[in-house]
């Protein structure tokens, strides 16, 4: 019968490599969490699982999401994406997928604060200096981001809107904040808002300047990031942005396979080594209640509603 066939399929899963599709370039924060998670999930997935990471960058993550939404419904092609899953819902007028209808939700992975960074070439060392500098400069700055709907884009949008400089800045889209970081270090761009998982070591190494963190409160427990104020403390009332990542399979993937993947994800998120690596970079691995299909889907639906307000306020959309 059908039940037996599905059970037999799940027992054999995985019998070939599982692909984590990452919507941004290698060397950035989404790539980092996917690669660390791939290591942590290998054992719990069983069958001597082989997990490969594929970087399908472009259009703020929507190309990768479309690829996974249309992939075979067998659990071998999974999407590891962040807040863009929710942001692109109202940002993109034409999309090839639906965030809520075209995926099986496996669970959330982590929460990640962001930092507002400047190039070492900028004539400012603190957030107050920086704001004074850009105002005296007529707001002329180049802001790097990873495409419309990326976390760096959403953060940049919120910050420009909050400081009322949205009309004067030039934004430059990269295939990920990994490559964008190289240009910030080189001084080809002036400013970028990016996840602590990509910025902490660069801040520590003095290769970029950190001005502020995007969480409501400063990150007082982190040895490096505790030195920076929150944007809210710097006068940007209500500014509070945390990025989260999640994992998704194509809609219609067999329930037994989904259960195997969800169980393995849960175990991986308890791996002390994975937790330590994430925490060193300012991220927090989520608790079990968010590693359920229902829990994560409810969370994303809520994020879609919240981000729609932010995006409509900025009034900039992607085609
Ligand atoms: C983002 O800005 O959305 C991410 O940092 C992109 C990336 O992972 O490169």
TrEMBL record:
Species: Hydrogenophaga borbori
Recorded family membership: Belongs to the UPF0065 (bug) family.
InterPro entries, A to Z: BUG (IPR005064), Bug_dom1 (IPR042100)
Ranges in a coiled coil: none
Keyword annotations of the record: Signal
Record-linked Gene3D superfamilies: Bordetella uptake gene, domain 1, Periplasmic binding protein-like II
Record Pfam families: TctC
Domain of life, source organism: Bacteria
Protein name: Tripartite tricarboxylate transporter substrate binding protein BugD
